[in-house]
What does this fold into?
Amino acid sequence: MTAEPNAATLLQDDEPLEPADSTFKATLGATMTLIALTIVWEFLVRQFQVPAWLLPSPSLIGQSMVEWRSELVGHSMVTLYETLVGFALAIAISIPLAVAVVYSPLLQNTIYPILLALQSMPKVAIAPLLALWIGFGTLPKIVVVFLVCFFPIIVATASGLAAVPAPLMDLIRSLSASSLQTFVKIRFPTAMPHIFVGLKIAITFAVIGAVIGEFVGSESGLGYLILVSTSQSRTPLAFGALVLLTIMSIVLYYGIALLERIMVPWAPRN
Amino acid sequence: MSKIHIEGLNKTYASSHGRVTALKEVSLSIKQNEFVTLVGPSGCGKSTLLKLIGALIRPSRGTLLFDGVPLLRPTRDVGIVFQDAVLLEWRTVLDNVLLPTEILGLDKVKSRNRAMDLINLVGLGGFEKRFPRELSGGMQQRVSLCRALIHNPSVLLMDEPFAALDAMTREELGFELMRIWDTDKKTVIFVTHNITEAVLLADRVVAMTPRPGRIARVVDIDLARPRTIDMEFTQKFKSYSGEIREVIYRSPGASRS
It folds into this structure.
């Protein structure tokens, strides 16, 4: 990222509206607010002696997370695995499919409208059926994750591939470029920022998909842990699992965002 | 022999309101190394005519000869500049300029040298490693001009290339274009809706009127070269632009806004 020191300085000069420390300030502000809210939560729970099974205090949640750390780590790994495999599968299938749809008028008029219509179907509602068809292992969870990730990625990729400005297409045609040249040099790079928008939406859905899959029927994963510990009134542990799910979601999202910074350095940032 | 010979050219589009005649019975001959501007209000078919010459669209009827040969498909002997620079954001200035040479499979070393010469020629020396987002609109359009010239085409098609720029940059780039044209002669067909710009740049101004798009008059501009900014205030210049304005606004199809 520091390969172009001149370029970086020039960019800063050109963008006086966006001071370099604005993200730092925002991060600091959010962190301080979070800490303050946690303290208020702790205080209120203690003050009004809320029972732990109803709403545990942050300190109690922390305690139980330490106590159950090996279980939490184990279940986290299961959920993470389902999430990543389902997400990777969605990328591997929807990006080539989007390319096929953009290049084939036949697919564009047959499969694609159906796919778009299916998008409005709540994928979560299929989870019980998946359990019925492929059992209670990790596979049905991976399939749920795949389904929720599939649509944002294919829609973003297809619209990105079609987002080449008309004059640029004219220019390319005036040079009699081949379809392959047009794809490699123009279309795919143009689609990249769009694809990453889809990936960022998909990765947030992915964790939700895995948890839903686990809710429906499983013997492991953070979703399972929440279900079991809630039913046994071990609410602090359920909260611990929730904290880990949130962290997992955030880390995955920023992982994708980091990948975007590396692979698509020209993408607009906000 | 004329570089580009157009005779009885028609272009109609099918639209939701039925058939629209974009160009009607257009005939025009453009000589080698001539600088021709097409001027007229929107809807007069000037951009359509430019696209036809670039073989980006096909005529509905009529003859279009390029070097005496019917033009059926795009030729690499043409360079195009659009209103928007449409540079590839992920490529440096140099790599943007080199894009056509990659597509045409030209010699890498020679292309690179020529690209650097062109970048220097338009005053962007030292900016070749920069990315488009780091450049002003005028600089981006200079890059797009280099990209149009990199494969050394004999015809340069320009579709309102300076219309998106501010007045000062626009003037500056106009003179720069003429300077480049002076050192490296090409047939230039330049679309604009700015009458002053059309007169200042051209050997001949083709005044067009809308509904249906057709050529209303072709005006020979007998002003010395190199052109200067002072010429705009001469009587001759004013009479040229007056004549063109008259032709464009007098037409029955012209809007009187």
Remarks:
- Residues 58-263 of chain A form a domain with the MetI-like fold fold (CATH 1.10.3720.10).
- The two ends of chain A are 18 Å apart (CA to CA).
- The CA atoms of residues 22 and 28 of chain A lie 10 Å apart.
- DSSP finds twelve helices and no strands in chain A.
